[in-house]
Amino acid sequence: MTKSPEQIELALERILPRVAKPGRYVGGEYNQIAKEWDDIEYKVALAFPDIYDLGMSNLGLMILYDIINKHKNLLAERVFSPWVDMEEKMREQQLPLFSLETKHAIRDFDLLAISLPYEQLYTNALNLIDLADMPVRAIDRDASYPLVIAGGHSCYNPEPMAPFIDVFVIGEGEEAILKIISTMRAAAHLDRETQLRHIAQIEGCYVPRFYDVDYHEDGTIAAITPNMPEAPAKVMKTIVPVLPPPVTDFIIPFVETVHNRAPIEIMRGCTRGCRFCHAGMVTRPVRERPVDEILDAMEEILEQTGYEEIALLSLSSSDYTHVLELTEKIGQRFGERGLNISLPSLRIESVSTQLMDNLSNSRRGGFTLAPEAATEKMRNTINKYVSHEEILETAREIFRRNWRTIKLYFMIGHPTEDLEDVQAIIDLSKAVLAEGRAFHGKKASVNVGVSTFIPKPHTPFQWEAMDSTENVEDKLRLLKQAVRGAGLRLRWNDVRESAFEGFLSRGDRRVAEVVERAWRKGAIFDAWQEHFKEDEWMQAFADEGLDPRFYSHRKRAIDEMFPWEHIDIAVTKRFLTQDFLMSQRQETRVDCRNQCFACGILPKLKDLRRETPAEAWQCPPVSKISDRKKQSPVRIPVSSVS
After folding, report:
1. Which domain holds residue 120?
2. Considering only Cβ atoms within 10 Å of each terminal Cβ, which end of the chain, N or C, has fewer?
3. Measured between alpha carbons, how far is 35 from 33 in angstroms, rounded to an integer?
4. Domain CATH for 295
5. Alpha carbons 358 and 356: distance in angstroms, whole number
6. Using N-to-C axis directions, what is the helix angle for 511-520 and 495-505, rounded to 10°?
7. What is the β-pairing status of strands 167-169 and 205-206?
8. Long-range contacts for 8-17 (Cβ within 8 Å, ≥24 apart)?
9. Of all helices (H) and strands (E), which one includes residue 408?
10. Backbone dihedral region for residue 571 (phi beyond 0: left; psi -120 to 50: alpha; all else: beta)
11. For residue 584, what is the enclosing H or E element?
């Protein structure tokens, strides 16, 4: 199945006229980087295991693309999952998966880096590896194959994908991927296991084959034990002390993507402590960009891309310390250009009237707020307290400033929730609509989005069980009956798909057998409702003698060992346990910018502050690593590479 770029190009000329959206597969877009292949020492394929239309909006992929390609002796090229029609043609023609920039087969690269931001991509990742003409199991790939690494938020519980990935990057990848590249270049002459023994010493790098998992008779975890001296008992996440410069020369896609805008990450991390929020726990500490850096990046983006919308991204954009200064200066500098500024994540209690006024010159879409729950009891339980009147006052001020649509996001299935709490969602949504009607009459509208609670790893709710499918369906039925009519629109997550995400996000290493079995039965594009094969997944669980409800719908004992116990996010289990117990008493914590609760991140932060910004994300030097059998373990320093 190995083919040259020329052979791949010829095959594409025959195939592309017969598939939907051929622009997904041609490359050559404005701002792409295509280096001279033969002049480059080390080559990385950056993969997003879903279609181009989604992957091209993934900021993480573009950050790594930018960082790697800044080094003259490295290159990064993109690869996405082909849609089902293209995959059929590729398999018919024995055409291997290829990169967009130079049409080289993925087998020709030194490193395949797969982004796994959510669990529904697992079977797509296996399919991507298989389409690249590589064995899906890591143990079957020797040093003649590209090293396969994976990173992203779903990798904080890597066990359901453990047999398929050589190395998981736990935490932030900007620094870690350059260290991995440097180590692999220095160890290129060694066998794969020895290479991995070196990589296991890099902070944030988890090599699954170096850990054994034992189980109790009831199926719970008994022990997770390293089987190599280089493997740490706990893999500490890697943290970037200073955010690297923002990407400004975004590739302009050939087909319409899910987000037609340029993103700038203005802040990373969150201090609010919402108990259901995986991202808020694993991305600590908070790091903010300077206002001038953001403004200069916006200027460059407009010059180099032509985008008309820029999204200022963070977990809670209105919590950015300088948000008022930033939005005011954006208005002064870009106000006459018709630029649309999007702040897609706003906290009700930190949205001020001045912030609304600063955004008033931006072209108006909807204004998004996320109360998550509609009663005081539930807001206390999830540690997202905001009063009913604060919500209505914020809505009133938004509508007063001529926004006509407010989007409200809620979650159902929270611990201790009952139908009265769901009825409160209906009442609050109608009350917000009434505020809009006072200003805009029938032109006012409220869009209500509802998702199902999933007790994610590394959160205070990781001990909780998912609400039963029957209960969630009853709650959705109530919402569907009441949140409708003029001005009200309801969107909700499919209950079955939420349960699917639940058992994958909470699975142990045995679930990997289910993932592979489901993929071999034809499960791909699980995030796409029309392709989700629930029956095949249930049969795969049955074939492996496992019950998905064991993972998703079972409350955990306080002393149970989790499948992700050996993954250290620098937030202590002691802190998470305390917060879980507080939730049961409906006790809340204030924003930890105002009071430290000793979550565990501060000692890690002190270590990071001893590093200089330059050292924090530069690539290590390349020097040949000797076979470990002949030399004691080597700690690879951080310095620079050309």
Report:
1. 5-236
2. C
3. 6
4. 3.20.20.70
5. 5
6. 130
7. antiparallel
8. 8/95, 8/96, 8/98, 8/103, 8/104, 8/105, 9/103, 11/93, 11/95, 12/95, 12/103, 14/93, 15/86, 15/89, 15/90, 15/93, 15/95
9. strand 405-412
10. beta
11. helix 573-584
Instruction: Say whether pTM exceeds 0.85.
Output: yes
Per-residue confidence (pLDDT) for residue 614, from 0 to 100: 39
Find the helix or strand (DSSP H, E) in which 433 lies: helix 419-440
613 in a domain, yes or no?
no
Residue reference for tokens 């009831």: 218
Within a domain: residue 521? no
Over the chain (642 residues), the average pLDDT of each successive run of 10 is 91 97 97 97 98 96 98 97 98 97 98 98 98 98 98 98 98 97 97 98 98 98 97 96 94 92 95 95 95 97 93 91 93 87 80 81 71 95 92 94 93 96 98 97 96 98 97 97 96 94 97 98 95 96 97 96 98 96 95 88 70 41 45 30 29
Last residue of a domain, one of 584, 607, 622: 584
**Does 285 lie in the same domain as 158?**
no
Distances (CA, A) of 579 to 185, 281, 399, 568: 44, 12, 36, 17
Report d(CA 421, CA 6) in Å as an integer. Answer: 61
Helix (H) or strand (E) holding 367: strand 367-372
SS percent in the chain: helix, strand, coil, step 5: 40, 15, 45
Residue 419, CA atoms < 13 Å, CB-side half-sphere: 9
Whether residue 324 is found in the same domain as residue 178: no
CA dist 14 and 385 (Å) reads: 59
Question: Both 100 and 160 in a single domain?
Answer: yes
The answer as to whether 20 is a domain residue is yes
Query: Three-state secondary structure along 204-266?
Result: CEECHHHEEEEECCCCCEEEEEECCCCCCCCEECECCCCCCCCCCCCCECCCCCCCCCEEEEC
CATH number for the domain that contains residue 143: 3.40.50.280
Is 171 within the bounds of a domain? yes
Q: Is residue 285 reached through a cis peptide bond, with omega within 30 degrees of 0 on the bond before it?
A: yes
Compute the distance between CA of residue 198 and CA of residue 194 in angstroms, rounded to an integer: 7
At 471, list the tokens.
Answer: 């209960």
Q: pLDDT tens digits, residue range 81-134? A: 999 999 999 999 999 999 999 999 999 999 999 999 999 999 999 999 999 999
